[in-house]
Amino acid sequence: MDSSLLTEKGESYSKALGNRQVQMIAIGGAIGVGLFLGAGGKLHQVGPSLVLSYALCGIAAYFVMRALGELVLHEPTSGSFVTYARKFIGPWAGFASGWMYWVNWAMTGIAEITAVAIYVHKWLPDVPQWITALVALGVLILVNLLSVKLFGELEFWFSVVKVLAIVVFLVTATGLVLTSADIGGTTAGVHNLTAHNGFFPAGLGIALMTLQAVIFAYSAIELVGIAAGETKDARKVVPKAINGVVWRIGVFYVGSVLLLAMLLPWPFYNGGESPFVTVFSRLGIPGIGDVMNAVVLTAALSSCNSGLYSTGRILRALADKGEAPKFVGRMSGRHVPYGGILFTSGAYVLGVVLNYLVPKDAFDIAIASLGVITTWATLIFCQMRLRQAALRGELERPSYRMPWAPYSGWATLGFLALVVVLMGFSDGAEKIAFYSIPVLVVVLAVGWRIVGKRQRQEVR
User: Fold this and answer.
1) What values do phi and psi take at 79, rounded to 5?
2) What DSSP string runs through 435-449?
3) What is the sign of the dihedral through the CA atoms of 116, 119, 123 and 127?
4) Can you point out the beta strands (E) in 95-187?
5) Which of 277, 311, 426, 437 has its CB surrounded by the most CB atoms within 10 Å?
């Protein structure tokens, strides 16, 4: 067997991702539609206090990434948190976390496909959104089915575009704020943080309600852990990628939202347009709005691309244990889990249907955040179990470790629980997601019972 392949049940993943690709996947995976599109509507809703939500979620994301890094160094695998949950919590946890992750990406895919349609609609207003979404989805499915190397290369360039755009925005916006530039009749400056009914124009409580949406914006940071199973020299490459992405997330996310709040009064933003497009369009520079629109279109395509990739691997990890239909575990001759990719694609088609039925409402799919929270909590809890096992002398703890453990882990779990509770007090889609939790628990419990019964029958 070629040492460049990771073998599972006689089938192999190709170790085709290099340091360059993994570094950009780690950075770019965390920059998506939640920031480029969602931030506009949230700024209009809660004003400058959105910065606080991004900062709090950024701290949680930091600890999640560090926990992930410790787990990856212990065992690099494309099964990622599903494998870790089975090992450190129990088989049921792998089943539950894997399917919740799929639910996350299934719902997120609808948001991403919707975002693609919204951006293209700016240029082609006469083309129905569902047609745009369908074409984009077809191209991304083809890329993912061909090879992991092609996925990695495409994601590398997607990420380069996103990161370059954010850097250009940060530099330009900083200059505009420092020079108190005129932006479409308003003056940029620090005063915009408090001049329009204060830093919390909607109140502290409403500001905290945005935590769920911001958690969604940070989703996909765990992608680097899944990619570890197809990365050359993962134990060396992944920690570097995580170290780099942690501080960049803070600068890109918190820095961008802070500057957006200082560039324009918050009422000027809206949920129907990227806040970046809003700013550059008001500057009156020809073509700038279109350039930014192209960039955020890239972000949406990148996020959807990542969703197809990651769920393909997670579904195969479930299928290997009989916890998902056998079809989703099938591998192609190109070492691609095509069954899982096609299965997720079916859910993404639902996004296309939603674009046809409700083109303006499909983006706000709050239930995806529950999948993100479940994944983050699973990673934190697995790291805590790994640490406990190391203290008992059952295994050797990696040198790359979660800082301030176990206190940082408990604090992060507490924060995630707070986000879930706050969802129940929302008046929007978040409340629907909150009240869907018992339904999801029942469905997962029934599913696990069926899986367990089938597994016992196979053993006999």
Assistant:
1) -75, -15
2) HTHHHHHHHHHHHHH
3) positive
4) 182-183, 186-187
5) 311
Nearest CA-CA partner of 275 in 305, 246, 245, 253? 253
Q: At CA 294, angle to CA 288 and CA 300, rounded to 5?
A: 140
277-303: pLDDT as tens digits: 889 888 887 787 788 788 888 888 888
Contacts of 236 (CB under 8 A, 6+ apart): none
How far apart CA 424 and CA 418 sit, in angstroms, is 10
Give residues with Cβ within 8 angstroms of 315, minimum separation 6. 98, 102, 324, 328, 329, 337, 339, 340, 343, 344
Q: Are 371 and 437 a contacting pair, CB within 8 Å?
A: no
What gap in Å lies between CA 209 and CA 225, rounded to an integer? 29
- Mean pLDDT score, 31-60: 88
Which H, E and C letters describe 315-353, residue by residue? HHHHHCCCCCCHHHHCCCCCCCCHHHHHHHHHHHHHHHH
Tell me the β-bridge partners of 57. Answer: none
Per-residue pLDDT tens digits for 126-140: 988 889 889 999 999
Nearest residue to 184 via CA among 47, 51, 277? 277
